[in-house]
Amino acid sequence: MAGQKVELIYEEYERFIYHLCLKLTRNKDEAEDLMQDVWLKVVRNEKALEGVDHVKAWLTTICMNTFRDRYRKTVRRSQHVMEQPDTLDVPILDLVPCAGPTAEDLLERDDLREIVQSKLGELDVIYRKTVLYFYVNQYSLIEIADLMKVSIGTVKSRLFRAKQRLKEMMLLDETAVGYVGA
Question: Where is the RNA polymerase sigma factor 70 region 4 type domain (predicted)?
Fold first, then answer.
């Protein structure tokens, strides 16, 4: 029974996990290796599936943690070597927690959080709900479509329009413009 559940989850989320792995590693072969490690952990922890409410969020967490573990291991090995790995770049470093954020980072993050929350409050209710379901509650598109009684295409359109509208509002706000890339 549990094995069937893992199989169903694999069928539904395999592409999502692969694209997340590819985004993290930026290398097809490494993405496939990472994905294999992720699914191995899922199979090993299939008993934990019974207590999982949001499978996508659970899988994302496993994927991110597996990536961080692999990255740290690579960095530890490369500390004894003169050159860093070829795949090392700044966006990947952003994913690995450092000793702690600086005071400036914390202030900037708080400012940005306030601005985004303010702009979210200005969005039409339908767009705000869709954004919150997807990004905050991490519901899948299917779950949002069921909750809102609309098609998946409508959910995608609402997410797209909401992001566009948020970006427009941020660009029009002098205090927020520094946080938004044009």
Answer: 114-166
